[in-house]
C-alpha cells in the first residue's frame, strides 16, 4: 500500500515566536511543525536542562512513599522490587536496586527482585508474581512501571502485612487507584498536581529514589553531601526512549539529554560491551541507538525468555560479565527478528486479503503467533496500512487471547479500550496502556465481538475519517542544504522521538545507482543526483524478502522521503540520505 506523502502543518505564530527568540527561518520552520503553542517555553524545550524538571513532590503520595521507604531502611526491613519485563521496567528495576544497595547502604540480601515472565506469568504484579512475593514475604514492596491495575494482588499482599508502594505511569482503571496500596505514585492519577502525564515509569521510580535520598539526609541517616542520583540517568534516558513516551515533554527531553551524557561516559560495563559489539569506539551513542540498538536487545529477552538476563546485563559489575549477558541478549534479538519476520509476512497477507477501504482498524489473530512479538508486529502493520492495529495470539492461560495494540496520533487507544469496556462490560478481562500503545486479554470466543466493538470505539473518535498510511515530512530541501552543516544545525533541536519527531524531508532525485546490500540482502543502496549534487542513500528493509520485486529501478526519476545522516561508513565526512520511502515518478 503506497503511503500518502504529506507535509507537516506549521503553526505560524510559533514560527514567528521562534524567529523572535533568535532561531533562523529554517530552524523556526522545523520548530513550528512540532510546537503548536506560540507561548511555549522555548528554553525548556529547545535547550533541555534538569533545572526545568517539575518538582517530584507534586506527584500524589510521593512524600508518603518516601517516608515509608526511609522507615524500612532504618528499621532493617526487607524490601521487594516488582517491575515489568520491558525496557522501562528493567531500567526501573536496575536503578531502584542500585539506589537502595549502592547509594543508601541497604544490605543486598535485604532486597529481593521480581520481574514477571511475559510468556508464563503475564504482565505486572500478576498472580504468579504475587505468589513469588508471598514466598519471600518482604515488609514493603515497590512496583515500577506496573501496579495501577493490580488491586486484587495488592490486597493479597496487604492482608499478610506487606505495604505496597505503587509507582507507575499507566492509566488508572475506572475503579480508581489500588485501594490496598500503601501509596500510589503516578502522574496519571486524577488528583495529581504533577503537570506532566507523559513521563515514563523509570522516571517515576527515579524521582521516588531522589525523594527518598533527601528524606534519609533529613533524618541524618545519610550525609548531607551524599551524591545525587545523576549517575542513574543513563537508565532513565534509555527507558524513556524505549517506552516511546512523548519527547514533547520538557521533563523527558531533559532526562534523555542528561541520560545520553551519562551513558556516553561509558562508566557501566554494559555500555563498554555495547561499544565493542556495535563498533562505536569513535562515535557517541545517540537517541536512535537507544531506540533501535540498545532497547530492542533488552526488550528481546523479555519477549523470548526469562527477563532477568536483561537486568544482569545492565547491572553487570565487570566487562567480562557484561559481554556474557550481551551475547545472550543479542542471540535473543536475532531469534526475535526471525520470529517477527515470519509473523509480519503472515499478518500482512491476511490484512491484504481482508482490509476494506473504509476500515479504521485492523485486528489480526493466529494460533501460531508468538505473544512476545505482538507489539512489534502491530507497529509494522500500522506503518504499512495506517490503521489502528491489534495483533493477538493465544495466551498462556487456556482459552484466553492476549493482544498488543498500536495507534495513530489521532486516536487514543487507551481511551478506546475504556469505551469498549463501558459499552461491553466483561468483554475485556484485562486491559491498559498509553494513548499510542496498549494491551488486552479476553476470551478467545469473544474475539469477533472485540473486533466489532473496537471498530466502533475508534469510529467514536474518528467519525467517518478514512485512513491510509501517511508519511509526514518537513517539505523539500534546496540542493545546497543537503549538507553536513544542515544536519549539524538540526542537532541543536535534539532529542527527537515520539511527539517531537526527527526532521524528515522529501524531494525528487535521479537514481544513478542501485544495489541490494546486507546479509540477506534486503536493504537497497542508492546513488542519487539532484542538480549538480550526487549523494549516497540507504533504504533499510526496502525488500520484504530476497526475491521481492524492487520498488524502483536504475535510471528512474524517483521521489524519496529521507533523513539526513552523516555517512559513518566513510568516516562521517560525507552526507547520506537514510530513505524511509521511495517511489518512481511517472513520466510527464
Q: Your description of this structure?
A:
It is a single chain. By secondary structure, the chain is α/β, with parallel strands linked by helices. It has 18 helices and 17 strands. The protein has a five-stranded parallel β-sheet, sandwiched between helices. The longest helix is centred in the middle third of the chain and has 36 residues, at 319-354.
Element layout with pairings:
Layout: E1 4-7, H1 12-20, H2 25-32, H3 42-46, H4 62-75, E2 79-83, H5 87-103, E3 111-115, H6 127-136, E4 140-144, H7 151-159, E5 163-167, E6 183-185, H8 201-218, H9 233-242, H10 250-263, H11 269-278, H12 287-304, H13 308-314, H14 319-354, E7 361-365, H15 374-385, E8 388-394, E9 400-406, H16 413-423, E10 430-433, E11 437-443, H17 447-462, E12 470-473, H18 484-491, E13 505-517, E14 523-530, E15 533-539, E16 557-566, E17 575-584
Parallel strand pairs: 1-12, 2-3, 2-4, 4-5, 5-6, 7-8, 15-17
Antiparallel strand pairs: 8-9, 9-11, 10-11, 13-14, 13-16, 14-15, 16-17
Helix pairs in contact: 1-2, 4-8, 5-8, 5-9, 5-13, 6-7, 8-9, 9-10, 9-12, 11-14, 12-13, 12-14, 13-14, 14-15, 16-17
List keywords for this structure.
588 residues; five-stranded parallel sheet; alpha/beta
The chain-level mean pLDDT equals: 93
Number of strands: 17
The strand order across the widest sheet is: 3-2-4-5-6
SS class: alpha/beta
Helix content: 25-40%
Task: Characterize the largest beta sheet: strand count, sense, and whether it forms a barrel.
Answer: 5 strands, parallel
Work out the radius of gyration: 24 Å
Quick one: overall form? globular
- Poorly predicted tracts of residues: none
End-to-end separation: 23 Å
- Beta-strand residue fraction: 15-25%
The number of helical segments is 18
Amino acid at each position: 500500500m503506497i503511503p500518502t506523502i504529506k507535509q507537516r502543518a506549521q503553526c505560524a505564530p510559533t514560527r514567528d515566536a521562534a524567529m523572535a527568540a533568535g532561531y533562523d527561518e529554517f530552524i523556526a520552520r522545523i520548530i513550528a511543525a512540532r510546537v503548536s503553542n506560540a507561548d511555549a517555553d522555548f528554553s525548556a524545550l529547545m535547550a533541555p536542562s534538569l533545572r526545568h524538571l517539575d518538582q517530584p513532590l507534586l506527584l500524589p503520595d510521593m512524600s508518603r512513599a518516601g517516608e515509608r521507604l526511609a522507615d524500612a531502611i532504618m528499621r532493617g526491613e526487607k524490601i521487594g522490587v516488582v517491575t515489568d519485563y520491558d525496557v522501562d521496567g528493567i531500567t526501573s528495576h536496575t536503578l531502584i536496586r542500585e539506589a537502595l544497595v549502592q547509594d543508601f547502604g541497604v544490605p543486598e540480601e535485604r532486597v529481593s527482585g521480581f520481574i514477571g515472565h511475559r510468556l508464563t506469568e503475564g504482565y505486572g504484579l500478576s498472580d504468579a508474581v504475587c505468589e513469588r512475593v508471598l514466598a519471600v514475604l518482604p515488609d514493603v514492596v515497590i512496583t515500577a512501571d506496573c501496579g495501577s491495575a493490580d488491586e486484587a494482588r495488592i490486597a493479597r499482599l496487604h492482608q499478610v502485612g506487606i505495604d505496597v508502594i505503587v509507582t507507575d505511569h499507566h492509566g488508572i482503571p475506572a475503579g480508581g487507584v489500588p485501594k490496598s496500596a500503601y501509596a500510589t505514585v503516578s502522574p496519571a492519577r486524577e488528583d495529581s498536581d504533577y503537570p506532566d502525564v507523559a513521563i515514563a515509569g523509570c522516571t517515576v521510580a527515579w524521582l521516588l529514589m531522589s525523594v527518598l535520598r533527601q528524606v534519609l539526609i533529613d533524618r541524618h541517616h545519610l550525609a548531607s553531601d551524599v551524591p545525587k542520583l545523576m549517575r542513574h540517568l543513563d537508565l532513565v534516558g534509555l527507558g524513556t526512549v524505549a517506552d516511546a513516551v512523548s519527547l514533547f515533554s520538557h521533563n523527558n527531553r531533559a532526562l534523555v539529554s542528561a541520560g545520553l551524557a551519562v551513558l556516553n561516559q561509558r562508566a557501566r560495563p554494559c555500555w563498554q560491551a555495547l561499544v565493542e559489539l556495535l563498533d562505536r569506539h569513535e562515535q557517541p551513542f545517540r537517541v536512535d541507538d537507544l531506540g533501535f540498538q540498545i532497547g530492542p536487545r533488552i526488550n528481546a529477552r523479555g519477549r523470548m525468555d526469562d527477563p532477568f538476563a536483561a537486568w544482569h546485563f545492565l547491572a553487570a559489575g565487570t566487562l567480562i560479565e557484561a559481554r556474557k549477558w550481551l551475547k545472550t541478549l543479542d542471540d535473543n534479538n536475532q531469534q526475535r527478528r526471525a520470529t517477527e519476520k515470519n509473523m509480519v509476512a503472515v499478518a500482512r497477507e491476511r490484512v491484504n486479503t481482508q482490509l476494506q477501504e473504509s476500515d479504521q482498524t485492523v485486528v489480526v489473530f493466529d494460533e501460531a503467533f508468538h505473544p512476545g512479538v505482538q507489539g512489534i508486529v502491530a507497529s509494522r502493520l500500522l506503518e504499512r496500512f495506517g490503521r489502528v492495529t491489534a495483533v493477538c495470539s493465544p495466551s498462556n492461560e487456556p482459552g484466553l487471547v492476549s493482544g498488543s495494540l498500536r495507534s495513530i496520533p489521532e486516536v487514543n487507544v487507551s481511551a478506546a479500550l475504556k469505551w469498549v469496556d463501558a459499552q461491553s462490560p466483561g468483554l475485556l478481562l484485562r486491559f491498559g496502556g498509553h494513548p499510542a500503545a496498549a494491551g488486552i486479554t479476553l476470551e478467545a470466543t469473544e474475539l469477533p465481538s472485540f473486533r466489532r466493538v473496537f471498530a466502533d470505539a475508534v469510529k467514536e473518535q474518528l467519525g467517518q475519517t478514512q485512513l491510509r498510511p501517511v508519511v509526514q515530512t518537513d517539505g523539500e530541501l534546496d540542493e545546497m542544504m543537503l549538507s553536513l552543516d544542515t544536519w549539524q544545525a538540526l542537532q541543536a533541536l535534539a532529542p527527537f522521538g515520539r511527539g517531537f519527531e526527527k526532521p524528515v524531508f522529501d524531494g525528487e532525485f535521479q537514481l544513478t545507482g542501485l544495489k541490494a546490500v546486507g546479509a540477506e540482502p534486503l536493504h537497497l543502496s542508492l546513488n542519487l543526483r539532484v542538480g549538480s549534487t550526487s549523494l549516497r542513500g540507504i533504504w533499510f528493509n526496502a525488500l520484504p524478502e530476497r526475491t521481492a520485486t524492487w520498488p524502483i529501478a536504475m535510471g528512474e526519476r524517483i521521489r524519496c522521503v529521507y533523513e539526513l545522516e552523516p555517512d559513518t561508513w566513510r568516516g562521517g565526512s560525507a552526507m547520506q540520505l537514510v530513505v524511509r520511502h521511495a517511489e518512481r515518478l511517472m513520466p510527464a
